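Hello forum,

I keep getting stuck at the same step: I have a sequence, I want structure tokens, and every attempt I make locally crashes halfway through. Rather than fight my setup again tonight, could one of you with a working pipeline run this one for me? It's a single chain of 136 residues.
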Amino acid sequence: MELALDWRFVVGNAASRKKVKPEGFGPRLARLRQARGLTQEELGAAVGLSNRMVAYYERDEAIPPGEDLANLARALKTSADELLGLAPIKHGTSPKVARLLKRLQKVDQLPPADQRAVLKMVDALVATRQRTARRP
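Reply #2:
Ran it on my machine without issues. Output:
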């Protein structure tokens, strides 16, 4: 019995295959940091690194040693596997939403009267935008 192979099936059409370059550690670290709404300085302070070291790691120059990797993962509320690209990154908030949430946390620390004033301003702005959006 002779087995005939269709090499197009085995090898595949080279033109149809996409060349996917895996994301390196540095860009992944930067993306996760931005998704959490952190600056390089804030992330560095959270893990005991200078912002220059964080920038160095984000440029894909090197992968941090184990202890720093664990601290980065903890500060970014992710796993070391996600940081290293061994597991897919779970979808989080966008950087824009993360920055907004961070600002709202600062408002939460204001005295109650100031919190009410901020909320009144936000409500007024939203109402004004909604009214102007309805106009033809």
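The CA atoms of residues 5 and 89 lie 38 Å apart. If your local run keeps crashing, start a new thread with the error log.
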